[in-house]
Write a structure and sequence with these properties.
two-stranded antiparallel sheet; binds 2-acetamido-2-deoxy-beta-D-glucopyranose; transmembrane; eight-stranded parallel β-barrel; hydrolase; alpha/beta; 12 strands; TIM Barrel; EC 3.2.1.39; transmembrane helix; glucan endo-1,3-beta-D-glucosidase; 2 domains
């Protein structure tokens, strides 16, 4: 009995360290094998003071098979944590910096500093110039948006990066003057003068049109009349567009097709529409109907299934929806109603806010800078430590 105990105590550290080493190796292989399996995109917002380091987040995202990440800036610590991972990045120029980018030299300097150093090891494939610019009342910003996009585009070309990085901007759905039925979709009258030349630019540059869509806002505004099944992708009879006879079983697709119609009405049939943000909050203020973990889980889970099915909208059935879920983490410093701080799939400690079948692994510490090369080395070190532990005991 006493001998067995001593024997156990002697072997325990060795077995523990060996198990950790094997786990590190196995996890890394599993992440590699699944990378790129499902084209899930996610918004990695950082308006918070309690988020894990980018190196740990790199592990989390890869363990979830996330293949596309969208940032609101071009955080070098994030981009550096994804070298050689194959994960595709959308980086952003914040609204506060858009006007400065009208100057070609500033645009060029921005790319040289924030994009070029990471290519091609980190796959930056798109730059968003501004976010939801037409939601605000800043007329100078609205007027500067297209010239800034043009400067960024020309700077990419001058640096030999044309065709490798798209240039666009992300809009909120309130650019729409009408969105129902989808075939009657039209931009707001005050937006059209800005939008017409932006569409010409996107068409020329072969860049996508990005739209942030939140069926949750429609539900929150009128919970008594907006059917929950229709906004949560649950079985329902749907709504038929009387002009096209197309049936919509969910609001998100109706919103996207209304944007296609609005673009078409301004003469363009050659621009892809992508969903740069969509999501559902898991918590809200008392007057924010529907902000619960149950509904958030239903919305996100059903959305992920449709992404996996590579489904298109009724108007473009053969073009799989291209979606960036909002958002990776709850962000505790976001202003506004409580829902704004509760869109995350994860709490900052890596615990899922609700279960949608996305398995994620947030490593407990920064044991590598997110580069896979360090992993076998770490495993070796752990095995060496195990051997030393064994020989000393
Ligand atoms: C972007 O704007 C912020 C805030 O005004 C400023 O501190 C920063 O230097 C700007 N960055 C660039 C690249 O212009
Ligand atoms: C913009 O201006 C209009 C009219 O002046 C006002 O109703 C609206 O609330 C303003 N929007 C913002 C975001 O400030
Ligand atoms: C740029 O956007 C177009 C249109 O959506 C797309 O076909 C192309 O693959 C994108 N380019 C890159 C480098 O991602």
């Amino acid at each position: 009995m006493a001998m067995a105990e001593r024997f156990g105590a002697r072997w325990l550290p060795f077995r523990f360290v060996l198990a950790v080493a094997l786990l590190v190796l196995v996890t890394d292989r599993a992440v590699m094998m699944r990378a790129g399996a499902t084209p899930i995109g996610i918004n990695y917002g950082q308006i918070a003071d309690n988020l894990p380091s980018p190196a740990r987040v790199s592990w989390l995202l890869r363990s979830m098979q996330v293949s596309k990440v969208k940032l609101y800036d071009a955080d070098p610590y994030v981009l550096g944590a994804f070298l050689d991972t194959g994960v595709e990045f959308v980086v952003g120029i914040g609204n506060e910096n858009v006007s400065a980018m009208v100057d070609p030299a500033a645009a060029r300097a921005w790319i040289q500093r924030h994009v070029q150093p990471f290519l091609p090891a980190t796959r930056i494939t798109c730059i968003t110039v501004g976010n939801e610019v037409f939601k605000g009342n800043d007329t100078e910003l609205k007027a500067n948006l297209l010239p800034a996009m043009q400067s960024v585009y020309q700077a990419l070309a001058a640096l030999g990066l044309q065709g490798r990085v798209n240039v666009t901007t992300a809009h909120s759905l309130d650019i729409m003057g009408s969105s129902f039925p989808p075939s009657a979709g039209a931009f707001r009258a005050d937006v059209v003068p800005y939008m017409q030349p932006i569409l010409s630019f996107l068409s020329m540059a072969r860049s996508p049109f990005l739209i942030n869509c939140y069926p949750y806002f429609a539900y929150k505004a009128d919970p008594g009349n907006v059917p929950l099944e229709y906004v949560l992708f649950q079985p329902n009879a749907g709504v038929t567009d009387t002009n096209t006879r197309l049936n919509y079983d969910n609001m998100l697709y109706a919103q996207v097709d209304s944007v296609y119609a609005a673009i078409q009405a301004l003469g363009h049939a050659d621009i892809d529409v992508k969903i740069s943000e969509t999501g559902w909050p898991s918590r809200g203020d008392p007057d924010e109907a529907g902000a619960t973990p149950e509904y958030a889980g239903t919305y996100t889970g059903n959305l992920l299934r449709r992404i996996e099915m590579k489904q298109g909208t009724p108007l473009r059935p053969s073009v799989p929806i291209d979606v960036y879920v909002f958002a990776l983490f709850n962000e505790n410093l976001k202003p506004g109603p409580a829902s704004e701080r509760n869109y995350g799939l994860f709490y900052p400690d890596g615990t899922p806010v609700y279960n949608v079948g996305l398995r994620g692994y947030l490593p407990p510490m920064d044991y590598s800078r997110g580069t896979r090369k360090a992993v076998p080395l770490l495993a070796l070190i752990l095995i060496a430590v195990a051997a030393i532990t064994l020989s000393l005991s």
